[in-house]
Write a structure and sequence with these properties.
Blueprint: E1 2-4, E2 10-22, E3 25-32, E4 41-44, H1 50-57, H2 63-83, E5 91-94, H3 97-104, E6 117-119, E7 135-137, E8 143-145, E9 150-162, E10 168-181
């Protein structure tokens, strides 16, 4: 997967993380192979290869990364269920967007209001989510479970440099990928 530039040079791309619209033009957040995420950049669509865009839309992340992301999600969900917080407030989990697109692709139902989509138990593939993943029991055997549907909203949070006068610059400082659950 390569990202091109206006100069015609090609740079290896680890993955395309996100897309956004800027003044009617699409840009992609590119994580460059062999570089830290602080060196990622928003790249115009014209400078991203068809292969890179196709991989962004239909990702096939390594199984280890999928399993780690699902484990983090289940652990965070279980903690929220134990605290009774899932009914009262949202929480976020570090979660790679390519994994989210791979797992949920076009599933979920857009709510009338708000961000994200509503997901039902059947939207969580048994291949990745073990039986009973949505149920938590305490040491006495009492438990609680997810009241489906749950709303998931995937986000890339970008951090930008500040100039000496305190204004934000357009230069990306870093980003984080999170899944918001409520």
């Amino acid at each position: 997967m390569n990202g091109g530039s206006a100069s015609g040079a090609f740079y290896p791309v680890e993955r395309v993380v996100a897309s956004r619209k800027r003044k009617r033009h699409t840009e992609y957040l590119v994580l460059w192979e062999g570089y830290r995420r602080e060196e990622s950049s928003w790249v115009p669509e014209a400078d991203v290869t068809v292969t890179a865009k196709r991989t962004f839309l239909n990702p096939q992340p390594p199984l280890r990364i999928i399993n780690d992301s699902v484990s983090n999600f289940i652990i965070s969900l279980a903690a929220s269920l134990r605290l009774g917080a899932i009914r009262k407030c949202s929480f976020s989990v570090p979660f790679r967007m390519d994994v989210f697109r791979h797992l949920f692709n076009d599933s979920g139902v857009k709510p009338i209001r708000g961000h994200g989509k509503n997901y039902y138990k059947d939207d969580f593939a048994e291949r990745y989510f073990p039986s009973g993943w949505h149920i938590v029991h305490d040491h006495l055997g009492d438990g609680c479970e997810v009241d489906f549907p749950i709303r998931l909203h995937e986000m890339v949070i970008s951090f930008y440099h500040k100039s000496e006068d305190g204004t934000l610059t357009r230069k990306l400082q870093s980003f984080t990928e999170v899944l918001v659950v409520n």
